[in-house]
Amino acid sequence: MSKSRVPLYAGLAVAGAGGYYLYKSGGDPNAAAKKARVDAESAKRQLQRGGNDTKGSNAAQQASNYIDETLQTARAKAEKGTDDLRQQAKESIDRVDQIRQDTARGVDQVDRKIEDKAAEAKKSVGGWFGGK
Questions:
Q1: pLDDT number for residue 122
Q2: Is the separation of the CB atoms in 52 and 42 below 8 Å?
Q3: Quick check: 25 and 39 in contact, CB under 8 A?
Q4: Cα 81 vs. chain centroid, distance in angstroms?
Q5: Residue 130 falls in which region: left (phi positive, over 0), alpha (psi -120 to 50) or beta
Q6: In which residue ranges is the amino acid composition biased (Polar residues) (predicted)?
Q7: How far apart are CA 98 and CA 7, in angstroms?
């Protein structure tokens, strides 16, 4: 089984922080410890009073406004696209209906011509055999 690596990383963080404070204090361990305590107390006070909330809340508000604006723009574009598609679909259906009607008229005309010619042929053939 694998061991948890959290203690390793925590130890590395503590060693790194210790090295940082020793470096900043010029190698004096007492000054490094004092500086670390001051920084820890400062961080604790900031956490207790909420840190710098105004900047964070402003950034959050700006991000929220940007996201809302982007969503509204996307919705508007989608609705416009939907309306355009509906209009194009209606135009296509109207065009298909017009073509269907034109085709039906053409078929009716051809059908009438065929019936007229058939009637003429029937009369002429009937005349040959003594019919009407």
A1: 79
A2: no
A3: no
A4: 14
A5: left
A6: 49-73
A7: 79
Contact between 32 and 18 under an 8 Å Cβ cutoff? The reply is: yes
8-36: pLDDT as tens digits: 888 888 888 888 888 888 888 888 888 88
Tokens 């135009």 label which residue? 91
Contact 35/21 with Cβ under 8 angstroms? Answer: yes
Q: How many residues in the chain?
A: 132
In degrees and rounded to multiples of 5, residue 50 shows phi and psi of: 95, 10
The amino acid at residue 50 is G
N- to C-terminal Cα distance for the chain? 108
Mean pLDDT on 81-88 = 85
Give the pLDDT confidence score for residue 46 in this predicted structure.
Answer: 80
Distances (CA, A) of 99 to 95, 102, 107: 6, 5, 12
Average pLDDT in the 66-73 region? 85
Cα(77)–Cα(70) distance, integer angstroms: 11
